[in-house]
Design brief:
Blueprint (H helix, E strand, L loop, with lengths): L1 H11 L9 H17 L5 E8 L2 E8 L2 E7 L4 H11 L4 E3 L5 H11 L17 H9 L9 E2 H7 L6 H9 L12 E2 L12 H13 L1
Parallel strand pairs: 1-4, 5-6
Antiparallel strand pairs: 1-2, 2-3
Amino acid sequence: MTSQHESAVTAGLVTLAPPPTPQELAVLHARLLEGAELAGLVDVAYRTLDTPVGVLLLAATPAGLVRVAYEREGTDAVLGELATRVSPRILEAPGRLDITARQLEEYFARRRRHFEVPLDMTLSSGFRRMVLGYLPNIAYGHTASYGAVAAAVDNPKAVRAVGTACATNPLPLVIPCHRVIRSDGVTGAYRGGAEAKRQLLRLEAAG
């Protein structure tokens, strides 16, 4: 009886396969990415990049770079914003962002003063987009006040609105809102934090 029972239990056992190794998972992810790319199912590709100002999340659509986010903004929150405002078809696909990552590394190594990547401005519109369009005119190693930027975009009374445009810039670093400071010389707020802004200004001043 006992022997028959044990045989029945043994016959019902299922041998579980060992969990996949990191290498096997990488291969599976590569196959998934390749299939999604071929099928046109990836609207937003993203990757992360270690930098002197912390880990950055980079995201791009077929049109261009759409988001640069600091770690303090929260990966889940940023991906949620992209899913809501751009497309829910998001996949980690580092290869799509290799050029942007390389240019950022060159920037932090003081070998690059401006970026040459296509931009997708979906996350900015109206006056804010106008302000962001002007900011690349502020040269590397230089700064401008919020008031000066407002005057440059023909709306000298919109100083606070310029501040809001800089604070909500979806492409910090690449669109250099860190070069906009208060008229009294104080650096002011920044999406990546005040210390990150000061660090970027010091890097450019030394370059």
